[in-house]
Amino acid sequence: MIKGYKLYKVGKRLVTGVVLTxxxxxAFGMNSASADTTLVSGSDSAVVKSDxxxxxxxxxxxxGSVNGSDHIAMNSSKNSSDNIDxxxxxxxxxxxQNDKDKVQAExxxxxxxxxxVNNDKETAKNSSLSSSTVLSTDSNxxxxxxxxxxxxxxxxxxxxxxxxxxxxxxxxxxxxWINKNGANQFYENGKIVVGEKNIDNYWxxxxxxxxxxxxxxxxxxKTVYYDNNGHMHYGYLKVDQTYMYFDEKDGHAVTGExxxxxxxxxxxxxxxxxxxxxYVRTNANTIYFxxxxxxxxxxxxxxxxxxxxxxxxxxxxxxxxYVRTNANTIYFxxxxxxxxxxxxxxxxxxxxxxxxxxxxxxxxYVRTNANTIYFxxxxxxxxxxxxxxxxxxxxxxxxxxxxxxxxYVRTNANTIYFxx
Length: 420
Fold this sequence. Notes:
Blueprint: H1 12-27, E1 37-41, E2 44-48, H2 56-76, H3 78-126, E3 135-137, E4 143-145, E5 154-156, E6 166-168, E7 176-180, E8 183-188, E9 191-192, E10 195-199, E11 202-206, E12 215-218, E13 223-226, E14 235-239, E15 242-246, E16 256-260, E17 264-268, E18 278-283, E19 286-290, E20 299-303, E21 307-311, E22 321-326, E23 329-333, E24 342-346, E25 350-354, E26 364-369, E27 372-376, E28 385-389, E29 393-397, E30 407-412, E31 415-419
Antiparallel strand pairs: 1-2, 3-4, 5-6, 7-8, 8-9, 10-11, 12-13, 14-15, 16-17, 18-19, 20-21, 22-23, 24-25, 26-27, 28-29, 30-31
């Protein structure tokens, strides 16, 4: 729509002022993008407006309106203003043509600028999926930044409307547990944790890929066990009908002797499994036996239908030695650790005898068959020679410890005994 402007009061001075003002505007390059202009002369005024969004035709019409006003003024004072009006007309024609060229050039510049800004806006919009920086322009082609969301770390622009917006997206720093391809991994300051790590009072071990260890695991200085959650295990662990034991302080798998609870002892092999129902020889002189509960045996152990062994208070098996369990009971355990039964010859011709209950015979007779009778004294040794007993009675035992019956015995050249 083309707007026309009327001059309600006409006078030579007023027309001349409008014409001169128009010439000055043309001379200083005032264009269609300038703000509204108001001319004031006393109480009479003429207003000339040029909107920033008006086209070339609107600009030309405005100048045409001035020329029309000049014509009205000329009719009022024709004789005095002919020369001035002719000059103004020539000046207006020249100025209007120059303004038209400038307006056309500015419109082209504005169009190019708008296209560049629109391209920048589209580029910024496509640079971010979740949030972006959008550049908008006002009528003076000034770029306005719209605050981006927190997920966009930086937005770099040249500050000019003809440059593209550069958007860089930075991932948040990883910390804590992260599930990656179904495996839980632990991060600190964006770096994956490898090796041993205490997390929430649980010890874990992470391999080179960041996966936590499960099961029996060899570390640099010890072997430990991690459950299915990756937690280090402490205490007993049942494996293959036996047990492993992991130290309560640092979790290392125990091997060898483990003393616990009022002098009780267990033993764990090099495979970390507890020894049960079996012997353990730790050196040439030390043999242990561990029962069905894994504890080392102390005292008498009966086995294999009547055999007997004995283990001292230090759990070591007694071999080649006596064991007195009370005032009337003495055992002797041989080189294989078994208790002796029957005749035992020792110390170059001495003889002892152990009954079927493995107790040594003392101060008593032993008949091994119809023709063989022995007598074992207070020290358990078999008697040889004359034995006096029961207030004057006498017996005689030969060099083989057998009692002489129904036969003579000459003790020297002048002494001969008969034993019935």
